[in-house]
Amino acid sequence: MVRLADLRRWDPAALESVFARFGTARDRLVDLDAGLAGCAPPSAWVAPAADAARATHDGVAERLRRVVSGVTGCRPVLAQTVDAIEGLHRDLASADATAAAAGFLIDAESTITDTRTVTLLPEQVDAYRADRIAQMTALRTQLDTILGRADEIDAALADILARAAAGQIDDGAATTLAGAADHVLGGVAVPEPPPVTAGPSATNAWWTGLTDAQREAVLLRDPGLVGNRDGIPASVRDEANRAQLPDQLGRLDSDLAASQARLAALLAAHPITSIDPPTPQVYAEVARLKEHIADVQVRHDAAVAIQSTIAAPDRQLLLLDLGPPGGHAPHAAVAVGNVDTAKHVAVFTPGMTTTVAGSVGGYTRDMQGVRDVAAAELKKVGQPDAGVATVAWIGYDAPQLDATMLDPSRSVASSATAQAGAADLARFYDGIAASRPGDPAHVTALGHSYGSTTTGYALQQTSVPVDRAVLFGSPGLGTNDVGQLHVAPGHVEIVDARKDGVADLGRFGGDPNLLPGVTNLYSEEYLLPDGTQLTASTGHSEYLAPGTTSQYNIGLAVAGLDHHQILESRIGYGDALRRVVW
Fold first, then answer.
1. pLDDT (tens digit, 9 = 90+) per residue, 28-38?
2. Predicted pLDDT of residue 161
3. Are strands 388-394 and 344-349 parallel, antiparallel or unpaired?
4. Taking Cα atoms as reference points, which of 408, 386, 491, 412 lies closest to residue 444?
C-alpha cells in the first residue's frame, strides 16, 4: 500500500517526462516498422525455408505494429494519469486543511492524532468525545479513499512501465492504466449531458449546473464530450479540442506509416512485373490500401493545417472533427478573438472547393482581416474596447470539383449539401447565443458562394435570430422570401461584384440582390473621407481581399456600423446582361 509520505512526494512532472519519452519511442518504432517492411523475403524464393522466413517476418512485423499501437494509446493515458495524481494532491491538501482546522495531526503513516486540549465540565465529556471520534472517523475515511486510489494508480503505472521496459506494451496495458486513472477522476460524479437534439440551451444549462470539480473531470476524462458541443463556452471548447488534437494527429501518423509500410511490403512481395502475376486478391488488397492511405492522408493534412492555424495568437478551436475513416470530410471551426467576451461575433461559411486542409488557414486569415477592419472602425467611433471575434466555420462537406460532381447529392448544382450542413450551422449560431445567456453578442452571419446558400438554409432554422447577415457572390439563399430568414428586419445585406456570374445565377431561390427587403452593398472603387482609397472587387473571389470596398463594408456590418456602409444603387453585372439579352 502506498504510504502517505510517499504520495506527498509523487511528482507529476517526472511522469510528464515519461510521457515525452513515449512520444520519442513511438516515432522510432514507426521508422523501424517502415524499415522492416522492406526486409520481406523476395517472392521468387520458394522453399520451406522461405515460408518459414516469411512467417517469421510477418510475425515480427505484426508484433511491432501492436507495440506501435500500444505506445500510441499509452501516451494520452499517461497524460491523464498526471492529471489524476494532481487531483490526488488537491484532495490531500483538502484533508490536511480539514485536519488542521479541527486540531488533528496526520503523520507520515497516516496516523491521526488529536492535538486539541480543552477543559470541560463532567457532563460535557461524553458528547465532546463522541463528536471528536466522528470527526476523526470522517477524516480517516477521506484519507483511506485517497490512499486507495493512489494504490490503483501505482499498480497500473508499475505494470505499464515494466511492460514498456520489456517491449511488451499492448492495448490491454493501456486499458488497465486508463481504468485506474479514470477511477481516480471518477470520484467526481458527473451527470449525463442532455441529448444533442435537446438544443444548445439545454447543453449550456447542464454545463453551468456542474461544479468546478465536475467540469474539470469532464475536460480530463472526456474532452470530446464538450469540444464540439454547441452551447458550451468557446474557451472550454477550445481547451477540449486542443487537448485532443495531438493524440489524433499521432494516431493518424501511425496509421499512415503502418499502412504505407504494408503496401510497400505487399508490392515488394508481389511485383507487377513478375512472371507469376499477382492474384486478384493481391490487386484488391493493394487497391484497398491505396484508398485507405489517401483517406488517412486527407485527415492527417487537415490536422496539420488546424495545428498550424491555431498556433497563431488569439485563436480558438471551436470545432475539431477529422471524421471517421472513409466517412465525411474533416470539419473545423477556428475563431480569431474570444467568442465568449466579444461584443461583436461573426461566423463565416465558405463555398465550393473548401477543405479544411487547403482552406482553414486562408479563411482564418481572411477573418483576421475582417476583424481588423471592424475593430478599427469601432475605435474611430469611440468603442475601442467593444471586442470583435470572427469565426471561419468549415463544418460541412462543401462541393468539390472532382468526381463527386456527378453525384446529385454532392454536386454544386444541387442544394442537398447546403441543406445537410445547414442544420449544424444553425445549431452553431444558436450555440453562441446559448453560451452567453446574460451577455448576448451582436452576431453576423457571413456566407460566400455556395456557403451563402448553406447560410441561407441555416438562417431559416435557427431558434434565435441573428442580428445581421451579409451574403456575397451568392447563387441563392434557399428562398425567394427574405422574411423567412431569422435575421433582424432590414439587415440582410448582399454584395454582388462586377463580373461575378455566380452571384447572378439565382439557382437557389432567385437572384439575391433583386429580392425585396435586401440591402445591396457597394463593391467598386471608393475614396473614403479620410483619404483612404478602397479598391474594387472583381469576379467571384475578391470579396474578402484586403483594402477592397467589399471587405470594408463587411467589416462595418460585423461592427454594427451600418450607417457608415457604402450602399449600391445599381443592378449587378449579370442583371444588366440579362436585361440586354431579354
1. 555 555 555 55
2. 60
3. parallel
4. 491
Pairing of strands 331-336, 344-349: unpaired
Contacts of 27 (CB under 8 A, 6+ apart): none
Q: How confident is the model at residue 571 (pLDDT cuts 50, 70, 90)?
A: low
Q: Say what the pTM is.
A: 0.71
Rounded to whole angstroms, the Cα distance separating 269 from 50 reads: 12
Helix axes 200-208, 416-434, angle to 10 degrees: 30
pLDDT band for position 220 (50/70/90)? confident
Rounded distance, CA 553 to CA 572, Å?
Answer: 17
pLDDT of residue 212: 85
Per cent of the chain over pLDDT 90 is 52
Q: Give the list of residues 6+ apart from residue 290 with CB closer than 8 angstroms, or none.
A: 263
Burial class for 9, CB neighbours closer than 10 Å (0-12, 13-18, 19+): exposed
Q: Cα(422)–Cα(526) distance, rounded to whole angstroms?
A: 35
Determine the Cα–Cα distance for residues 131 and 449; give it in Å rounded to an integer. Answer: 73
Instruction: Name 386's Cβ contacts closer than 8 Å, sequence gap at least 6.
Output: 342, 343, 344, 375, 378, 559
Residue among 333, 257, 261, 262 at smallest CA distance from 300: 257
Give the integer Cα–Cα distance in Å for 133 and 136. Answer: 5
Contacts of 324 (CB under 8 A, 6+ apart): none
- Is the confidence at residue 63, as pLDDT, over 70? no
CA atoms within 13 A on the CB side of 154: 16
- CA-CA-CA-CA dihedral for 477, 481, 485, 488, to nearest 10: 120
